[in-house]
Each structure stands twice: as structure tokens, then as C-alpha cells.
From TrEMBL:
Coiled coil: none annotated. GO terms for molecular function: ribosomal small subunit binding. One of its GO terms (biological process) is negative regulation of translational elongation. SUPFAM superfamilies: Ribosome binding protein Y (YfiA homologue) (SSF69754). It is found in: Cytoplasm. This is Ribosome hibernation promoting factor. Keywords: Cytoplasm, Translation regulation.
Length: 195
């Protein structure tokens, strides 16, 4: 069952907006196995009073679904996001089922739903990013030692290397963390944990 956490930045989340988002995003719940509980975190942000940015993140036990869309119309952005999420689910369900057919866990992340695209969410463009025929191919492998450091040093190292992310061992927690550069130029931190 999907729960919703909807926040607005420079946008008032009216009951009509909340109802529309919940109704649209709730449609992807049909892809989840029975009894799945997840929280859809939806962030709305007005950009220069002309565009709306909508982000939807759904963390689940074995994966995280995330999509982001900017559009002049809030409702159109939500429609586009639902289409992106459905394409992500279909793509990864196909790949995961092919590769991990006999394993529990990630292979069981989605319910059995027909692979027929939903024309209501088809934007008309050949979205190569979510093409179901793409094969994952590792073309290069690197090995390196994880040096203990703090987040600021990791960001400096990342910038010196000219990369968009950097993996490091946190000096305080001794955990493996990742810093990354966001599209808006700010930085993000991913802290790992073992279940």
C-alpha cells in the first residue's frame, strides 16, 4: 500500500493537488507484490514562476524508484512522472527477471503485470534511457583503496578528479559513503548501511 508524503516549495499543496498526485501515482501500485508497503515522497517546487519541478522517490526494500520532471503545468509534470516510473519498473522488472529468475528478494520486487506499455503515459518519444532492449555492459573496471576522510575532503577529491561522484570511507563511522554532484550544482551524500 502506498503512503504519500507530499511537500511543496514555493507551492501550496492544496487538497486538489494532493488528490490528483495520489490518484495518479497510486496507479503504479499495481506493479508491486500484494502487501507491499511503501511511501511515495513527492516534492513540488516552483521555478521562476514559470515552471514546476516534480520529484517522486519511492524507497522500497530492494530498490529505490525515482523520477523527476520539469514542466510549465504541474498536472502535466505529474502525468509525465508516472509514465517515467512505469517505464523504469517495466525495464528493471524485465532485466531482473531475466538475470535473477530463481532468486528471492530483488527478483520478486514487482508483481506480475503484463509488459504492454500504457498509452496514457506514452510521451511519443523513443525514450532510450528506459529502452527494455538495452543490455548492461561493463566496459571498464577500476580498483582503488578507500581512504578514510570526511565529506568535505571527499567533495574536494571528486572535484579535483573531475568526476560526478566519489566513493570513500567515512573517517567517523568507518562506513562506505558516496558524495555526488547534483544537477543544480549542489552536493549530495549517500550513506550506506548493511541490513
Amino acid at each position: 500500500m502506498l503512503q504519500f508524503n507530499i511537500k511543496g516549495d514555493n507551492i501550496e499543496v492544496t487538497p486538489a493537488i494532493r488528490e490528483f498526485i495520489e490518484k495518479k501515482v497510486d496507479k503504479i501500485e499495481r506493479y508491486f507484490p500484494e502487501g507491499t508497503n511503501a511511501t511515495a515522497m513527492v516534492n513540488l517546487k516552483a521555478i521562476n514562476h514559470s515552471q514546476t519541478k516534480v520529484e517522486v522517490t519511492i524507497p522500497m526494500k530492494n530498490l529505490v524508484l525515482r523520477a523527476e520532471e520539469r514542466h510549465d503545468e504541474l498536472y502535466a509534470a505529474v502525468d509525465l512522472i508516472v509514465g517515467k516510473l512505469e517505464r523504469q519498473i517495466r525495464k528493471y522488472k524485465t532485466k531482473i527477471n531475466r538475470k535473477f529468475r530463481d532468486r528471492e528478494g530483488i527478483g520478486m520486487a514487482f508483481a506480475a503485470v503484463d509488459q504492454v506499455p500504457n498509452p496514457a503515459y506514452d510521451t511519443g518519444d523513443a525514450d532510450d534511457e528506459y529502452s527494455e532492449d538495452d543490455d548492461i555492459k561493463i566496459v571498464r573496471t577500476k580498483q582503488f583503496d578507500l581512504k578514510p576522510m570526511d565529506e568535505e575532503e571527499a567533495v574536494l577529491q571528486m572535484n579535483m578528479l573531475g568526476h560526478n561522484f566519489f566513493v570513500f570511507t567515512d573517517a567517523e563511522s568507518n562506513g562506505t559513503n558516496i558524495v555526488y554532484k547534483r544537477k543544480d550544482g549542489s552536493y549530495g551524500l549517500i550513506e550506506t548501511s548493511v541490513e
